[in-house]
Specification:
2 domains, mainly beta, ten-stranded parallel beta sheet
Length: 466
Amino acid sequence: MVFRTAALLLAISCTPKDGDSITTDDPETDPTTDPSVTNTEAPSPLCLQKSADIVANTGNTILVEPGAFGQVTVNGNPDTLRGVVSNASPGDTILLADGTYTFEEAGGNDYTGLYFATENLTMRGESGDPAAVILDSNYADHGSESGVITVAASGIVLADFTVQRSIFHLIHYWSDGDASTVHNVHLVDGGQQFLKASGTDIDDVEISCSQFTMTEAGQDNVWGYGDQDGSTRCYTGGIDTHDSRDWWVHDTSFEGIYCNAGGVQRPAHGKYASLRNSQTYTGGLAEHAIHMWDSPPGHGHVLERNRIINCGRGIGLGMATDVYDTIIRNNTVFSEHAGSEEHDVGINVERGHDSQISNNTVFFSSPDAYSNAIEYRWGESSGLELHNNLCNQAIAARNGATATTSNNIDDAQADWFADVDAGDLHLASCDIAEVAGAGAELADVTDDMDLEPRTDSNDIGADQCL
């Protein structure tokens, strides 16, 4: 698989205008081994402002530098990064100097990951460059069946660093992780879901201007369950929330998050090999790049301006439980893969209520792609609206679902887009008659995937061509 770094970066450090290009030092760089890819385009104003707000809210500062394996230094004294986090006071900022931070294996019932249990802490990279500050789990067992970073307090801000190579989650939200932020963070190669919320009522979380990337090396370390017959359950994914409300996921990219069958038996890790009876996995359908399982009435999510490239599934809303009042708008979903047990739908809503799926672009380039770009399912769904979506596969109702639909296109052509091969679904031209100004005006969709205003017209899809 080729990882198209240029396309991956479109949504993070910058939001290019139609026809702009991205340049990198090496477009084939593996972010696990060399996360030094840089973007030469101007940063998104929204992302810049968010970064400035985080820096301005510094409070007391604890400067941390990498030390010996598993250790850091603070004012020349050795410590662990877990110790620094645990001993910080509310309002403190833990400032990470450039370098690679490592973690000891856990012993007994220990937990050697970072546990945020004090409110209103910020941990960010000093330089503002996430590629320069690496938190590397190296697939070690940190104990407690949790991630490299566990958030169990409100008001936590994580920014400007990379966290990578975990056998579990990279960031794990427990109860009380409300009003927290993940900004300009690169999450690379999670064994399970990269960012998981599995506590109770984890509300008002913002995920912004970040990258979620699975590399080829990462696919060999994904957690899977099931028989070794190709029907394995693949247990990786991007963002996965349960019992959460009012999340805002925006301006973030997701690339390559799927389980690769390939006839390869991939291993369990550490002591968990015995817990899984030494099972390996051979593929299976991953969780979505973004999956919000549920939300109560009046407390939905906003998922907007995200770019999803070559993931097993794109955006999922609901599933076994009901989800309410969610907006999915101005996202792009691209896949070059054929439909299979590993590659499925672009956007799906199951048991959704009073939710809007508008001005998204979904394009599958394989001639054998999965048949549906967008699905909405189950008769108990209600109040769904689908408007102005631009796709080249069907927008389909399943299992008795109904919705109000208008101005959707399901036969988009590859030459309508700037660079399909790179997953860049900006419009190639402002003169595509089927798209230009052909969308319904929507009160909740006033700008596009680049925050450009839709003015007095509304192009169909995520990009407003100006």
